[in-house]
Amino acid sequence: MNGLLCYCRQGFEPELAAELTERAAQAGIAAYARANRNDGYALLLGEDGAAMQRALPWRDLIFARQKLRLLAELRGLDPRDRITPLLAALEGAGRFGEMWIEHPDSDEGKPLAGLARSFGNALRPALRKAGVLTAAADARLPRLHVTFVRGDHAFASSADPRDGAPWPLGIPRLKLLPDAPSRSALKLEEALLSLLDEDERARLLRAGMTAADLGAAPGGWTWVLIRHHLRVSAIDNGPLRQHVLDSDLVEHLRADGFHWKPTQPLDWMVCDMVEQPRRVAERMATWIREGWCRHAIFNLKLPMKKRWDETRLCLDLFAAQAGKPLTVRARQLYHDREEITVFATPR
């Protein structure tokens, strides 16, 4: 097969398919998407899989948790011997430095976790014996992915470790600590991990930097920021958890986060308020345009229909009204639901 296999949140397959199709067309690549709602993945098919892989970097994709280059689709697999047809499909595909056996993060895919584990234990030595997989993990080589969508139906794909999620299924496994004020803390933790690279995290999250958390209650995002030793103005008419308030890095201001503005420029602004996405995009652009903050992370709550169209519109609106060159990255995170998370920083 020629094309890409991308994982996504269950129920967002049409949005992923629309995004892949549009981005391929913008790159001048003839391709079409294949997706079924609730499958947890979408395919982008065409004549030149290598061109698609180059033209659609994983970091630029919003609804894709993982991006893989398709090698083969295997249907009608015999449960007594799935290894032989897979080895045949991989003939001439080169060597791989690592192997992941996966399944979609969907209602139909999750029961395949046991099969994935047992098959991986059987396949690994067979691949090494055939010279397809290195004896030890080698990040310089492509990574082999075998994705079971049913017991008798799988895809074989490859990943460039530099151009894809570094976590199985594209899901970072984060633990909610006991003192986290709410589960929303995981959203910001994942955003910092997924949308910023290691160098950016070191440069942009330094002790003593200042931040505003708009709509802060009960304090999940503020809690994440003070764990990075930032000084935070937590803006919300609602209450914050007492242990967050007890930090000498937090000032709680009872005000409407949608209208409050700082008296002096801040390093960061974060926002997870429930509001119409276009209204949020415009307000976030005002913060950047007026110089009230340098860097921002905010969520856009998407409507039930035409979610890809609304995503494009809101991101275009934000970029146009911000009034200055920005690097903007957006993704539907694992800990997001009907929303996407956006990171913006000066270019």
Summed up, what is this model?
The chain has 347 residues and is α/β, with parallel strands linked by helices. The protein is built from ten helices and 14 strands.
Low-confidence stretches: none
- What portion of the residues fall into strands of 2 or more residues? 25-35%
Number of helices: 10
Structural class: alpha/beta
Envelope shape: elongated
Predict the CATH topology of the largest domain. THUMP fold
CATH secondary-structure class of the largest domain: Alpha Beta
Mean pLDDT equals 96
How many distinct domains? 2
Q: Termini distance?
A: 37 Å
Most strands sheet? 7 strands, mixed
Supply Rg: 22 Å
Query: From the 3D coordinates, which CATH architecture of the largest domain would you assign?
Result: 2-Layer Sandwich
Number of strands: 14
Arrangement of strands in the largest sheet: 2-3-1-4-7-6-5
Oligomer: single chain
The helix-strand sequence is EHEEHEHEHEEHHEHEHEEHEHEE
Helical content, roughly? 25-40%
Describe this structure in words.
The protein is α/β, with parallel strands linked by helices and 347 residues long. It has two domains: 3-170, 2-Layer Sandwich (THUMP fold); 185-346, Rossmann fold, CATH 3.40.50. It has ten helices and 14 strands. It has helices at 13-26, 49-55, 83-89, 113-129, 185-195, 198-204, 220-227, 242-245, 277-289, 307-322; strands spanning 3-7, 31-35, 41-46, 66-74, 98-102, 143-150, 153-159, 210-214, 231-235, 250-253, 266-271, 293-301, 326-331, 339-346. The chain has a seven-stranded mixed sheet. Helix 4 (113-129) links the parallel strand 5 and strand 6. Helix 5 packs across helix 7 (220-227) and helix 9 packs parallel to helix 10. The chain is elongated and about 65 Å long. It starts with a strand and ends with a strand. The model has no long low-confidence stretch (mean pLDDT 96).
